[in-house]
Recover the amino acids of this structure.
C-alpha cells in the first residue's frame, strides 16, 4: 500500500519497522511504533495526525535529531541509526533543512547572521558567506530586512527567514514541522507557496508535519496518516502544480 | 566551525548579556589582580633583600682562618680536618695559593690593629684596618665624600663618619640628628693625621746555633710614626657584618702590610712552630659570584683551613622567600578560584538560558564539537579579558602600594625603595593562568551544553 502511485523517482528515505519509545515515569510512550514507509526523491509528503500521533517524532527521526529505539531509517542507502553523533550533525547540516512552527531563529542575531549560521558550521569561507545568505534572503523577499532582528519582524517574515536558513546549504530534504501553525491563513499560504516552489523548481523532497488536512490536500502530493505512533493511511493526492493563488482545496 | 568564527560568535554571545558576563570578567580580573599584586610584592621584597645583601658584600666572600687558631667557626671542620697543630699556617704563601684557585677574584689578609692617631695634637685610640684597592669599585663606598686612595701604598686614610665626628668634637648626643657625611668631610679632607704604631721587624739572628735553638719566631718591636692624609669620609656602619667595615679608619692594605704593624696574633707566632713568616689571623677571599662560594670554600677546606661564608644564610633566606611567594601565590590563587566558580556559574546559567538556542544550532547542523567549542571559547574570551584587565589592575595596585610605602619611608627619613616588581614572565604568566583557569572552568559547562538533546532543547520555552 505505501505510496505506490508516487514512486516515480528513486527512493530517498526508507524506514523499516521504525520505533521510538519514551519512558515517562513508569509509563512507556510509543511515540513511533513500527512504521515502515518509503519516500521517493522529489515527493511532497504531508504527515497528518492529531497531536500525540507521533508525526513530529517521526520527522525528528528522519531529521537525525533523534535516534530510533529500534528499526532503521535509511537515507540514500545509509542507516541513520548507525551514524555517530558527529555524522548525524553533518547529515543535518548538509542533507536536511528544517523549518519549525515557532520559527526558531536565534533572537540575538540579525536575519543575515541567522541565515549565515549554517554556513559557519559548514566552514564556508567568510568572504562567500554574506553573499550566499543575502541571496537566500532575497529569494524569500527579505532583502530589505537583512540587519533586522527576528523580534522586529512579523511571523510570516520570520518564517520566510527560517526557510532561507533551511535552504542555505542546498539540502535535498526540507523537513517542515507545522510551518504555518503560528501564522494567519494568508501568510500561511505565502509560506506554503514558497515550499511548493522549492519542491517544484529545486526538486527538493518535502516532508511536512501538519494537522490541517485541508492544507495537506492543497499542497502535498502524498498524505501519510498517523495515529498512536502507527501508520494508519497513506494516499496520493492530485494537486494542482501551479504556484499561483490556490483554487480548490481547503475551506 | 573555524576557530576565528568560534571566537567571533563567542564575543557576540558575551555581548548579549553584557552585565552578567562583565561581572564574571571583573571577578576574574580581581582574582588575577590579587595574584599579580601578591606575587609582585613577593618578588619586589626578594629583590630588595637581594640588593641589600649584595651591597653588603657578604655573599661573595669567604673568610679563611687557620685551624691553629683556638676558635673555629665550625666545630665539624675541627673534628674532621687535621689536628690544629698539624694544619698549615695561614701565611703569605697560603694566601697566594688561595688567590690562584679558580673563581677567586682576590684573597687578601685582614689586617687590623688598634693604634693611636694624633690629630690637632690630641690622641685618639681607634681600630684601623687595611682596605684592598679593589674596594674602590665596591658600592659599599657609595656616598663617600672625598676620594678613594690614590694608589695602593700612598699614606692616605679614609675615615668612618663617627670617627670624623669624634675628631671634630661633634660626638652625637643620644636622640639628636647625626651630622651628615658632607658636613663632616669639609673641614677634614686634606688634613693630616699622625699614626703611632708598633712595627714588627725580623731580628737578625746572631748565630746559627741560636736560630736553631729557638722554638718559635723571634722578632723585635719598634715604635714608629707615620703621617697620613685624610682623603675621604664614608658612611659605612662600623658594626655591620662586613669584615672590612669593622674599623673606624681605613688605610690602603698594601701600605698596612708594608708598615709591618704589630698585630695581636703576632704574639702567638713567637711560641708556635710556624717558622719565620708571619701568619695572618684571617684571609678574606672574594669569589666571582655567590653561586661559586661553595666550590671555593670546599677547595680551601681541602688545603687545611677553616672557612666561613654566609651562603647558608642566603640559602635559608631564599627558602624563606620561596615560601613567602608560595603563600602569596596561594592567597592570590584563592581569589582566582572564586572567580572560576563565577565562570562556571555564568556559563551554566547561560546554558539554561540558551538551551533553545543550542537546540536550534544543533537542528541546523552544529556538531557537539561546535557547541562545546563555542562555550569553551566564551570561557576563554572571558579569561583573556579578565587576565589583561587583572594584570593592569594588579600593576596599579602594586604601584599604589609602592607609592604609599615610599611616602611612609620618606616620612621616616629613609630613602625610597622599590618593594614591588612585576617581571614580564609574571604579566604573561598571569594572563596565561587566567585563560587556563577560565578554560578549565568552561570544561564542564561546555560538555554539558554539547550533550544537550536537541529534541528536548527545542521543546524548551
Amino acid at each position: 500500500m505505501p505510496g505506490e502511485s508516487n514512486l516515480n523517482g528513486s527512493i530517498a528515505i526508507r524506514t523499516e519497522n521504525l520505533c521510538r519509545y519514551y519512558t515517562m515515569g513508569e509509563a512507556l510512550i510509543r511515540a513511533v511504533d513500527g512504521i515502515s514507509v518509503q519516500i521517493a526523491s522529489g515527493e511532497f509528503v504531508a504527515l497528518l495526525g492529531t497531536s500525540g500521533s507521533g508525526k513530529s517524532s517521526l520527522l525528528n527521526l528522519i531529521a537525525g535529531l533523534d535516534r530510533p529505539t529500534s528499526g532503521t531509517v535509511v537515507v540514500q542507502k545509509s542507516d541513520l541509526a548507525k551514524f555517530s553523533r558527529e555524522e548525524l550533525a553533518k547529515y543535518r547540516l548538509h542533507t536536511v533543512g528544517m523549518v519549525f512552527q515557532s520559527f526558531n531563529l536565534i533572537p540575538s542575531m540579525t536575519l543575515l547572521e541567522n541565515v549565515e549560521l549554517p554556513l559557519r558550521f559548514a566552514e564556508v569561507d567568510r568572504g562567500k558567506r554574506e553573499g550566499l545568505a543575502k541571496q537566500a534572503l532575497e529569494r524569500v523577499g527579505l532583502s530589505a530586512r537583512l540587519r533586522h532582528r527576528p523580534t522586529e519582524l512579523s511571523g510570516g517574515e520570520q518564517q520566510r527567514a527560517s526557510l532561507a536558513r533551511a535552504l542555505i546549504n542546498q539540502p535535498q530534504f526540507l523537513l517542515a514541522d507545522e510551518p504555518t501553525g503560528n501564522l494567519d491563513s494568508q501568510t500561511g499560504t505565502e509560506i506554503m507557496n514558497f515550499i511548493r516552489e522549492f519542491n517544484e523548481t529545486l526538486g527538493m523532497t518535502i516532508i511536512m508535519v501538519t494537522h490541517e488536512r485541508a492544507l495537506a490536500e492543497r499542497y502535498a502530493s502524498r498524505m501519510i496518516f498517523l495515529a498512536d505512533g502507527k501508520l494508519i493511511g497513506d494516499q496520493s493526492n492530485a494537486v494542482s502544480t501551479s504556484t499561483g493563488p490556490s483554487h480548490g482545496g481547503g475551506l | 566551525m573555524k576557530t576565528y568564527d568560534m571566537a567571533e560568535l563567542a564575543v557576540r554571545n558575551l555581548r548579549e548579556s553584557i552585565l552578567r558576563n562583565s561581572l564574571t570578567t571583573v571577578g576574574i580580573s580581581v582574582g588575577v589582580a590579587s595574584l599579580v599584586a601578591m606575587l609582585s610584592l613577593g618578588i619586589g621584597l626578594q629583590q630588595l633583600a637581594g640588593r641589600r645583601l649584595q651591597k653588603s658584600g657578604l655573599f661573595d666572600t669567604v673568610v679563611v682562618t687557620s685551624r691553629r687558631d683556638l676558635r673555629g667557626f665550625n666545630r665539624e671542620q675541627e673534628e674532621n680536618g687535621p689536628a690544629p697543630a698539624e694544619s698549615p699556617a695561614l701565611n703569605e704563601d697560603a694566601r697566594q695559593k688561595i688567590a690562584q684557585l679558580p673563581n677567586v677574584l682576590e684573597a687578601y689578609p685582614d689586617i687590623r690593629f688598634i693604634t693611636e692617631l694624633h690629630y690637632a695634637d690630641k690622641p685618639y685610640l681607634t681600630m684601623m684596618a687595611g682596605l684592598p684597592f679593589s674596594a674602590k669599585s665596591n658600592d659599599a663606598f657609595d656616598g663617600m665624600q672625598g676620594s678613594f686612595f690614590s694608589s695602593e701604598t700612598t699614606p692616605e686614610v679614609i675615615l668612618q663618619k663617627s670617627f670624623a665626628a669624634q675628631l671634630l668634637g661633634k660626638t652625637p648626643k643620644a636622640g639628636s640628628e647625626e651630622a651628615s657625611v658632607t658636613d663632616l668631610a669639609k673641614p677634614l679632607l686634606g688634613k693630616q693625621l699622625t699614626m703611632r704604631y708598633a712595627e714588627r721587624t725580623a731580628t737578625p739572628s746572631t748565630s746559627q746555633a741560636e736560630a736553631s735553638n729557638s722554638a718559635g719566631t723571634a722578632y723585635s718591636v719598634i715604635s714608629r710614626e707615620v703621617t697620613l692624609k685624610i682623603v675621604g669620609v664614608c658612611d659605612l656602619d662600623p658594626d655591620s657584618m662586613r669584615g672590612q667595615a669593622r674599623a673606624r679608619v681605613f688605610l690602603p692594605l698594601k701600605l698596612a702590610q708594608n708598615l709591618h704593624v704589630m698585630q695581636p696574633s703576632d704574639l702567638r707566632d713567637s711560641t708556635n712552630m710556624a717558622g719565620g713568616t708571619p701568619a695572618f689571623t684571617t684571609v678574606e677571599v672574594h669569589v666571582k659570584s655567590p653561586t661559586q662560594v661553595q666550590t671555593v670554600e670546599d677547595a680551601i677546606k681541602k688545603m687545611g683551613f677553616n672557612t666561613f661564608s654566609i651562603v647558608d644564610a642566603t640559602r635559608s633566606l631564599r627558602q624563606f622567600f620561596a615560601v613567602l611567594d608560595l603563600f602569596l601565590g596561594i592567597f592570590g590563587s584563592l581569589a582566582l578560584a572564586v572567580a572560576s566558580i563565577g565562570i562556571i556559574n555564568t556559563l551554566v546559567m547561560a546554558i539554561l538560558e540558551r538551551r533553545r538556542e543550542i537546540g536550534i544550532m544543533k537542528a541546523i547542523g552544529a556538531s557537539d564539537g561546535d557547541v562545546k567549542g563555542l562555550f569553551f571559547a566564551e570561557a576563554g574570551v572571558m579569561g583573556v579579558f579578565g587576565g589583561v584587565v587583572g594584570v593592569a589592575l594588579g600593576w596599579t595596585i602594586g604601584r599604589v602600594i609602592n607609592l604609599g610605602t615610599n611616602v611612609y619611608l620618606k616620612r621616616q627619613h629613609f630613602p625610597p625603595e622599590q618593594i614591588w616588581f612585576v617581571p614580564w614572565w609574571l604579566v604573561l604568566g598571569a594572563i596565561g593562568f587566567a585563560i587556563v583557569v577560565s578554560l578549565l572552568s568552561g570544561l564542564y559547562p561546555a560538555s554539558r551544553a554539547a550533550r544537550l538533546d536537541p529534541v528536548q532543547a527545542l521543546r524548551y520555552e
User: Anything to note?
Assistant: The longest strand of chain A covers residues 11-24. The interface with chain B takes residues 60, 63, 65-66, 85-86, 89-90, 92-94, 97-98, 100, 104-106, 108-109, 117-118, 120-123, 126, 165-166, 169 of chain A (CB under 8 Å).
